[in-house]
Amino acid sequence: ILCLASAAAALDFKYHHTEELEQYLRGVHAAYPSLTHLHSIGRSVEGRDLWVLVLGRFPTHHKIGIPEFKYVANMHGDETVGREILLHLIDFLVSSYGRDPVITRLLNNTRIHIMPTMNPDGFEATKVPDCYYTQGRYNRNGADLNRNFPDAFENNSASIQPETRAVMDWIKNETFVLSANLHGGALVASYTFDNGNPVTGSSKGYSTSPDDDVFIHLAKTYSSNHASMYKGTGCDSRQTFPGGITNGFSWYQLEGGMQDYNYVWGQCFEITLELSCCKYPPADQLEKFWRDNKVALIEYIKQVHLGVKGQVTDKNGNPIPNAIVEAKGRAHVCPYRTNEQGEYFLLLLPGTYVINATVPGFKSILKTVEIPDNTGNFSALKQDFSFPEVSDQIRSRVVSCAKIPLYQELARASAAVKPTIHILALMTTMLVIFK
Asked: Entry's PANTHER family (predicted)?
């Protein structure tokens, strides 16, 4: 046991290639088997495993009431800082559990998924590190993985890559609530939408989601807890970010991005963290990058406990999957639905909200809730819904949101009848359900 613990703790500030990374993850799991779960969600083009280490009191499976969180790094193979600081985050979490009361409560009340590299082929292909660009950015097929997801605004003609498909399936199979993907080449926290159209205000240079206030808070949480990101100075005089944050579309428009996909189709709030001006800095700088990001990484995870959560059940107390649960006034273009356990999680800032629970074919239930800031208590406000008219013989059928450019459909409707965005979202919901 001492040997295993020693092996798990032996994490130097250097770059860990595929075999070393896998060896380290296996060592951590062997040393902390009850706190961790190691699995591969798929393989890269060249057959490398896409490893995920899960940490928490119940690492092997979802537990009702405990939200799912994820960090993903090295999506662009030549952007390497995130890959290494996630290994050090793992080391910090497992070594602090049972010793640090905050980390202990965090892991007891959160299931944390960490993927150090989404593009191992690109990392291994980067033979000569460069601060600006190498071919290692792309996967083995030459695809940019952050332009490879279905897009909510326009048809993405890119062929879905094995790494992308693995992440899409992963998102589908877990109830992720909050996420961040770690990049390099700038110093800023960027938030959805990355793409846009007139419906989301892109004509004014900003693409607004229904949860824009929450996304701004999430980005500021990371930036303000980072050693220097909050200063907003960027990496050169041409690039400044007030407060160290930016709307993705305002920075530059991109199609097929992962954070928009998470939000629209995964019911998961994700932001993009640009952590270093140099994409692939010298290894002797890694310790400073870890110090600069350590507090921000932890504070950001805590935000998974924002808002409200609960279960939707029938008259017998059985869970109702696929019930729509959303806050009034912020309907999503792809309605947010309960999971197989009838659970929902809505990230909302402190305030008063009306939560609308709907089981198709039955009268909606509306409840007014006063949401406090519960991140320090590691539990969102709990609000359950019970449908007394619904029996276990009558269940919501599985409804998957179409992978069509949903906001493109809204733009067409808007040009024709000029209704509000809220009404448009409801129209689209009905269209998807009937299709």
From this structure: CARBOXYPEPTIDASE M, PROTEASE M14 CARBOXYPEPTIDASE
